[in-house]
Write a structure and sequence with these properties.
Radius of gyration of chain A: 22 Å
Largest interface: A-B, 85 and 85 residues
Distance between the termini of chain A: 40 Å
Oligomer: homodimer
Strand order of the largest sheet of chain A: 14-11-13-12-16-17-15
Low-confidence stretches of chain A: none
Structural class of chain A: alpha+beta
Mean pLDDT of chain A: 95
């Protein structure tokens, strides 16, 4: 197989030596890994189609990978593939990027373009258009991977997740057939939304090779506020009002004093506020002019917080400083061990109860484990990070996911199901839903070539 | 079959007499009609599931109908069903409506709720939340039908079409299995987006029984301006700037002097501006306060139009007056005959060329036919109405749809494919796409129970 693949992509882009393969077969958290027979790196859609056909002929399974920033093992090979060779298909070389279509407010990006590169491209173009999704892994995460997993991030409260930004995709199916929907027409009711179906299907239905992205107006004026609050309940109350009264709202990030302490110790940053609070809410507004500052400042003023309970920064270094308290949580947690990253959504009215219950639930099943929580509050999305239990022990995962589902929440807000959560899919999805998903999967990929073991449980659901 | 259905829904809700059935089997334009064996009107999801199972057992085909405001024949029976009895499933009795979830900004609506009833419900609740979709057929169009066809309307430029408003659906599949996704979680990456797939599938994959809708903040201050312009090209240039510079923009409707003359003759309205223009652009902004007026007024001022080239109205009667010029186009055209309603999207940069070419193309194939055009300019969406050719003659349809597709456009912007455009689906969708759609259809509805003849061509595409 390596030899025939080399004829398609060139010898430099078929990796077979273990030292070269390892960076692709271990995920960012180090929790998920598995062996690949080889890594193949095509640079064009036609080459992807050829690779898919050759792997199908050879009976291999294909694992598709973008920037390898996924957190549920969906982009790395399974630990065990039952003897079937696994080919890892790296999409990073599909890095074409069209000029911005200024009239439509759209751009076409290859699957391998990183989010940071896309933001740069838009800033360079100075066309007045920006991209509505941003997240901390921006330097590595690729547009293709973000589309395949329907990535969320910090601006969902204003612009929605990836699916909402996507006017269409180009993708290769398991048959090697190429679907192309890159015209970017705003309205196009000509049949099933295949692009929307591929988005979030985690590479199990097709390999996304290019994406037509809708852009949002550039909002040059940004203002950020960090609020010290008593607890999650107060933050939740505040967020509903914010969403209605501050239309320029772009971010509503929550974190807690234990996580903040770790960030300060690890990074050398001083505390952001003069005293310690039960919960911290980082909010950001963006707009065309200074009006957004007034809008946010007025809202904060009306809250009647104590003087030492808020810090506001407009623009540049001050903003980045406030954001650092939030964004550095990720690296701190990873430095402490191999985290169990549990990404859940709760209905807003249950979120405060969950945040308190989850700490005691984890303490009960994994005494001594460290729990660090942050999240995108306006979306009802908390990231529960647990450090301590061994990577292969999923007791904590089970406890946290069952708690979230039992409170009406989702076991995956934005990370997807991947390999990590397949076992618990039925907490959120009924047998009828899983059966419908399996029917669709089988109709498009009868041999189970694409991302075997990802998203869907291996056997038919029990009834 | 009628007898067993009566046991499910009661005798009053199984209609078999021709006089009672006719209103369901002829569409609003009178162009599309076909015979039904009976009409069944269940009131609950369970009853819908029972009806579907009974029809499957009886070998009948099911046609699903909401408010019967569709314009492509997708909600009325086929002219010819090859001897298979057709049951018309009317969804209007599924009219439950939940209280507004104020924290989440969401509401759950039964498929049979009309758009007008939903707007009323939100206004009555005075919760500060509104619904992002509006269209002229609001008094009859149902939420279920609008979801099934991914309806668009006048506010797509700000809020997107139905798919963007839908957090999840409840639907019954051809097996009678019920999929339920009404929790309204903002982020929920647990498998394929079945709700999004059902939206816009025109009843061919499942019957939508309930919809969880995302709401948008109520914007109480509205300002409307009618601009007299030279031509479509000038309007297109203006719209790109508007989208970027007026974030409160909600509508960008275009119409032309010939249509305006018909509206004035038919309705007795006087002309809206002191002289006649080549194209009319109706724009509307909405926001929380008077700021939107300034924003729009400033934009209009900067255009430097002549004094007699614009009319601005803020609020109430003045606004309704300006809107009447646009919204009455529909009824006027219908009063003149059975219109061929051709709903296309063009890339914005080709739209002016299309608008001019389509008039001469129609004149060439249907001399003497009347062409009335209006549209949602910001979406690149024009409604080309042709009056004159007999309903069954599709020469004009062929000419207009080929012209649009040939210029990179879509043959259906918001109406869907229905029965009217199946013949031309391949102008926009490749054999690979049609094959993928057919594979999905077959996987979920192998017997072709749901909406036979709608959306997909009857046989495999040629390769």
């Amino acid at each position: 197989l390596a030899a025939v693949l080399e004829r398609v992509v060139g010898p430099a882009h078929v990796l077979v030596e273990p030292a070269l393969i390892t960076p692709y077969t271990v995920d960012w958290t180090r929790r998920w890994q598995g062996p690949a027979a080889l890594v193949v790196r095509p640079a064009t859609t036609d080459a992807v189609a050829a690779v898919i056909r050759l792997c199908a002929d050879a009976g291999a399974g294909l694992v598709v990978q973008g920037g390898n920033t996924g957190l549920v093992g969906g982009g790395v090979p399974p630990r065990e593939s039952g003897g079937r060779p696994i080919v890892l298909l790296s999409m990073r070389r599909l890095d074409d990027l069209s000029p911005v279509d200024e009239a439509a407010g759209q751009v076409t990006a290859g699957a391998g373009i990183t989010l940071a590169r896309l933001h740069e491209h838009l800033a360079e173009g100075a066309t007045g258009w920006a991209f509505g999704v941003d997240l901390a892994a921006r330097d590595s995460a690729t547009i293709g991977g973000m589309a395949a997993t329907n990535a969320g991030g910090i601006h969902v409260v204003r612009y929605g997740a990836m699916r909402e930004q996507i006017a269409g995709v180009e993708a290769v199916l398991a048959t090697g057939a190429v679907l192309t929907r890159l015209q970017g027409l705003t309205k196009d009711n000509t049949g099933f939304d295949l692009s929307g179906l591929l988005v979030g299907s985690e590479g199990t239905l097709g390999v996304i090779t290019r994406v037509r992205l809708r852009l949002v107006p550039m909002r040059p004026v940004r203002v950020t506020a960090l609020l010290g609050l008593n607890d999650t309940g107060q933050a939740v109350d505040l967020v509903s009002g914010l969403r209605r009264e501050v239309p320029s709202l772009e971010a509503t990030e929550i974190f807690y004093p234990d996580g903040l302490d770790l960030v300060c110790q690890h990074s050398g940053l001083g505390p952001p506020l003069a005293r310690r609070f039960g919960a911290y809410l980082l909010i950001e507004s963006a707009g065309p002019d200074e009006g957004v500052m007034e809008e946010l400042a007025e809202f904060v003023f009306r809250l009647g917080l104590d003087d030492d309970a808020s810090a506001v920064a407009a623009g540049g270094p001050g903003r980045m400083h406030l954001w650092a308290y939030r964004e550095r949580h990720t690296e701190v947690v990873s430095a402490l061990g191999v985290p169990h990253k549990l990404d859940v959504t709760l209905p807003l009215k249950r979120l405060a109860a969950f945040e308190s219950a989850v700490r005691s639930r984890v303490a009960a099943v994994a005494p001594g484990a460290m729990v660090v929580i942050w999240g995108h509050l306006g979306d009802g999305n908390l990231h529960v990070n647990v450090i301590g239990p061994p990577p292969e022990d999923d007791t904590v995962d089970d406890a946290v996911l069952r708690l979230a589902a039992g409170m009406g929440g989702s076991i995956s807000a934005e990370h997807g199901i991947g390999r990590a959560k397949v076992r618990w899919l039925s907490l959120n999805r009924s047998p009828a839903e899983i059966e419908a998903m399996r029917a669709i999967k089988t109709s498009l990929d009868p041999a189970g070539l694409l991302n075997p073991g990802v998203l869907l449980p291996p056997s038919a659901p029990t009834r």
